Amino acid sequence: MSEPMITVTVKLFAIYQEVCGVGEYRLQLPPQTPVATVRDRLLLEHPELMPWRDFTRFGVNLQFVAPETLLQSGDEVVLIPPVSGG
């Protein structure tokens, strides 16, 4: 019997939010999914975001994490593209 899917909340900022048209959504994933998979799935749906792929940082539950960090059900994922300010 396979493990149940996990559910995470994904928060989008800056260019991700502009392109996707939402600031937050829920995503169901298989157990043992690394956080980078969230970004990669988003890029499949919105290939125009590809220029930001290698510059995006990841946050899980208000902590910066490595791309290979495994997600757990209930996690809050933040995709953080490069930002510039003035």
Automatic annotation (TrEMBL):
Q: Biological process (GO) annotations?
A: Mo-molybdopterin cofactor biosynthetic process
The answer to whether keyword Cell wall biogenesis/degradation applies is no
Instruction: State the superkingdom.
Output: Bacteria
A cellular component annotation (GO) from this entry: molybdopterin adenylyltransferase complex
Listed CDD domains: Ubl_MoaD (cd00754)
Q: Which Pfam families match?
A: ThiS (PF02597)
In terms of SUPFAM superfamilies, this protein maps to: MoaD/ThiS (SSF54285)
What the record says about family reads: Belongs to the MoaD family.
What organism does this protein naturally occur in? Neosynechococcus sphagnicola sy1
Q: Which GO terms describe its molecular function?
A: nucleotide binding
List, alphabetically, the InterPro entries matched.
Beta-grasp_dom_sf, MOCS2A, Mopterin_synth/thiamin_S_b, ThiS/MoaD-like
What keywords does the record list, in alphabetical order? Nucleotide-binding
What is this protein's record name?
Molybdopterin synthase sulfur carrier subunit
